[in-house]
Design goal:
The chain is built from eleven helices and 20 strands. The protein has 423 residues and is of the alpha/beta class. β9 and β10 form a beta hairpin. It starts with 5 loop residues before the first strand and ends with a strand. α4 packs parallel to α5, α5 (210-227) crosses α6 and α10 (334-347) packs parallel to α11. The longest helix has 18 residues, at 210-227. Bound molecules: 2-acetamido-2-deoxy-beta-D-glucopyranose (NAG) (5 copies). One 2-acetamido-2-deoxy-beta-D-glucopyranose binds next to α9. Residues 246, 294-295, 298 line the site of one 2-acetamido-2-deoxy-beta-D-glucopyranose.
Length: 423
Amino acid sequence: MGFQISLFFVLLLVFSTSILAQDLDDARLVIDANTTIAETDDNYICATIDWWPHDKCNYNQCPWNFSSVINLDLSHPFLANAIQAFKNLRLRLGGSLQDQVLYDVGNLKTPCKQFGKDKSGLFGFSKGCLHMKRWDELNKFFKRTGAVVTFGLNALHGRHHSGRGSWKGDWDSSNAHDFIKYTISKGYRIDSWEFGNELSGKGVGASVGAKQYGKDLIHLNSIIDELYTDIEPKPILLAPGGFYDKSWFEQLLQVSGPRVVNALTHHIYNLGPGNDHNLIKKILDPDHLNKISATFRNLSLTIRMNGPWASAWVGESGGAYNSGGPNVSDTFVDSFWYLDQLGMAAKYDTKVYCRQTFIGGNYGLLNASTFVPNPDFYSALLWHRLMGKGVLDVNGHRSSYLRSYAHCSKERVRTLFITHCLH
Ligand SMILES: *[C@@H]1O[C@H](CO)[C@@H](O)[C@H](O)[C@H]1NC(C)=O
Ligand SMILES: *[C@@H]1O[C@H](CO)[C@@H](O)[C@H](O)[C@H]1NC(C)=O
Ligand SMILES: *[C@@H]1O[C@H](CO)[C@@H](O)[C@H](O)[C@H]1NC(C)=O
Ligand SMILES: *[C@@H]1O[C@H](CO)[C@@H](O)[C@H](O)[C@H]1NC(C)=O
Ligand SMILES: *[C@@H]1O[C@H](CO)[C@@H](O)[C@H](O)[C@H]1NC(C)=O
């Protein structure tokens, strides 16, 4: 009987009065509150902190300021408040440069240097390094603010570039091993370790074959098992943190085998490049918004057929890529994309949805220079406070401009929540 208390959430995309008159007048929504069709994690809302330094620029604009894992101002009062507003906010630390990060611990033989511009480096930057002093500060901050942390490990370490973006050879686990060991010795709690960033399929910048990746995941899993012996809770293992590619993902699950990868993390940038002049048009176009459902559907099939022990997470999703769309990703209209994504992903049994970014770029929930929340911050917070884990089916006759998603409520009250109605 738990479902009689349900929360109803309506997102209206209405752009022309004719559509309003014609289709919304006879909209009929039927919510089946008897059964849930999917279930999210308790902490579905997640946001990322990236490694991009302040001199990462796109389209003659440098919107990152000091918002990276390495230099974010952890003492800024807005930052702690914004995280604490969620009570427990999931944060995923990762991004393009993560596969070039070294950890300054153990037998690291190279000096610990910061990222610098380097034309021959991946994404135009040299390798970077995380000092343990900074790691200590970060963990103190995460503990104080109640953040639930996913850390993305460097999955290219020890491999060699073999042409056309393809990287070959076994992963060198030594630096990650020492880093995890240090983390445990300090009592820092990591919810999940993630392996690699955008190396799946054809990759973005670099790629690694699924067979090799699966082998390395078995190895990483055994390191976690060994280092966390008698330590509870043991973090879960996430991979590959990249774009969905059917055969690559299938093979990864087949090679790594039962219960190695706990969740498949995939990335979504379904609005195209940040300088696309049609961003707003795409955000308000139901056909465009619907296209990505094929990815969610296929991924859930991939899991069911090849690795039913794993769940699906959106590990990084910012709408528009290359730092987001100026004046779009940081404004009200972006919530039409973001809230629709949260609803759609949950329907396909996605457990966690990580927004790129919590802070940094044009798509930050917080503005990277002022730390003031952007509109999507409040969308994330409303979702987190109102929407429960149980996803309900919504049927009936309605225009595709009316986006409707229903969940059991978090608080046990019946709520009607209408987010946007644009005439
Ligand atoms: C939900 O359950 C009630 C009570 O068991 C039943 O009367 C009703 O037909 C069910 N509704 C649907 C849509 O299955
Ligand atoms: C989903 O799977 C179908 C059937 O295999 C395929 O035709 C389609 O291209 C896939 N789409 C995506 C986005 O993976
Ligand atoms: C953003 O919008 C403001 C106000 O409409 C405008 O002044 C500014 O030039 C825009 N900036 C960009 C990068 O489009
Ligand atoms: C942050 O806010 C400032 C001041 O309002 C604005 O000029 C800037 O464009 C914003 N930056 C981003 C990345 O949204
Ligand atoms: C970052 O933001 C601050 C505050 O708005 C500004 O003073 C500073 O110049 C910015 N730095 C960079 C590298 O953009």
